[in-house]
Design a protein that fits this description.
2 domains; 12 helices; four-stranded antiparallel sheet; binds zinc ion; GMP Synthetase, Chain A, domain 3
């Protein structure tokens, strides 16, 4: 059984978890109804009052909240407390138009720190570690979420935030960083830049633990990062609407991510109808917050694709249910001549091949009337000769064809030929929309 940050809550029996959830759900619904006009009219529209929530199953009768609802309520529309009681504001990385704001009371920040501590501790962070936080600080929830969790555990936190990769590497070397937090694709980018600086991350640095989130990353990418860094990797899940990172985290048993059920209720629904799917079926993750006071979230549609795993007890000793690692976002999936493709399916195949480098890109174009998917892959190391790159192309083509069910084009390119970014990697280039 694993060591835990908060053993009494992390290994609570299922019956007690159910009781806590119902009690907190009823309180959350009542407060939302009484204090937030948006929720009151949405519940009334369904003929519901807070007294109608008598069991966890009644959750399904509640309306859902989308990112658009949050955007339209900008800035303070969904607040359930006077603005004066809020001590922090974050905003989610909106792609267009208004950002979505999230506000926090002091109690919210304490709860967020608690769940971050559980995730970080699960991923190996301890007092004595040197913990480098590479996600952005500021309105984005990543940086400060990891920061306060790391400090509460008692690690030495280096708040580098995002970017300036050479400085990140120098600090890792000079301060003896033992654990990093960040975005998975950025971990590979750091390793590449280090190699250009003549530093082998495995040999010359002491980073042996990593916790990554904010983008979907496949099991094989996780193995690749582990190999390149000689690191134990964990996957953390969350979003600003639910405090930030920390909603759940993968334990060492390899069976998905534990979701902290004393703070959230997780449902999986069909993204097109919003109806619940069957047990262990894949769909959109919908989360209800149970402890948020400033901005309670009832049935928030995350657009993330996952499934609930068998609720059997995990070998780590934690009793909170597990979801599969997020496969992608409902909106990330693209369609090639009617066949649905998640970038993660392609990544899974690519990262199995050690000859494949750190970066890849999926380009979708029209070839006549048909859609054509081209998979651009960088060769690893110092590149490869024409013969080996052709044989790699053939091997990748055969395996991708069998996974995807159609014929993609595969091109192996020299190392470093795909444009880099220090934030989330740009994996899909859909030229059909232009
Ligand atoms: Zn576990």
């Amino acid at each position: 059984m694993d060591e835990m940050w908060n053993r009494s809550l992390e290994s609570l029996d299922r019956e007690s978890i159910g009781k806590i959830q119902l009690e907190r759900l009823r309180l959350t619904v009542r407060r939302s109804y009484e204090r937030v006009p948006f929720y009151r009219s949405a519940l009334k529209g369904r003929g519901l009052s807070p007294d109608d929530i008598r069991s966890i199953d009644d959750l399904r009768r509640l309306p859902m909240v989308s990112k658009d609802d949050l955007r339209e309520s900008y800035p303070f529309g969904l607040l359930a407390v006077p603005r004066e009681e809020c001590v922090r504001v974050h905003a989610s990385s909106g792609t267009t138009g208004k950002p979505t704001l999230v506000l926090y009371t002091r109690e919210d920040l304490q709860n967020w720190t608690e769940i971050m501590c559980r995730c970080l501790f699960m991923s190996g962070l301890r007092r004595g570690d040197v913990f480098q936080v590479t996600p952005g600080y500021g309105l984005f929830t990543g940086g400060l979420g990891f920061h306060y969790g790391g400090e509460a555990i008692g690690a030495t936190v280096i708040p580098t935030g995002t970017g300036n990769t050479e400085r990140q590497i120098n600090l890792m070397r000079d301060l003896g960083t033992t654990m990093i937090a960040g975005i998975a694709s950025y971990a590979l980018h750091i390793a590449e830049v280090a190699s250009e600086m003549g530093i082998d991350v495995k040999r010359d640095l002491q980073v042996r633990k990593g916790i990554f989130g904010a983008e979907a990353w496949s099991d094989s990418l996780m193995r690749k990062i582990s190999d390149v860094w000689g690191m134990d990797c964990h996957d953390i899940y969350g979003m600003s609407e639910m405090y930030g990172p920390g909603v759940g985290c993968s334990c060492s048993c390899g069976g998905g991510l534990h979701i902290w059920e004393d703070h959230f209720i997780v449902e999986i629904v069909d993204p097109s109808t919003g109806e619940p799917v069957g047990p262990e079926e894949e769909g959109e993750v919908v989360l209800t917050s149970l402890t948020k006071t400033a901005m309670p979230m009832l049935r928030f549609r995350t657009r993330d694709v996952s499934k609930i795993l068998d609720a059997g007890k995990c070998d780590c000793g934690r009793t909170h249910l597990r979801i599969a690692r997020v496969k992608g976002r409902c909106d990330d999936a693209f369609s090639i001549n009617g066949v649905k493709v998640f970038p993660g399916q392609v990544e899974y195949v690519l990262m199995k091949y050690p000859e494949v480098g750190m970066n890849y890109q999926l380009v979708i174009e029209k070839a006549g009337v048909l859609d054509q998917l081209t998979v651009l892959v960088e060769a690893g190391g110092n590149g490869m000769g024409i013969n080996s790159s052709q044989s790699l192309e053939r091997a990748l083509f055969r395996e991708l064809r069998s996974v995807l069910g159609f014929q993609p084009r595969v091109r192996v390119l020299p190392p470093m030929s795909i444009e880099r970014s220090e934030g989330k990697a740009k994996r899909v280039l859909d030229l059909r929309k232009k």
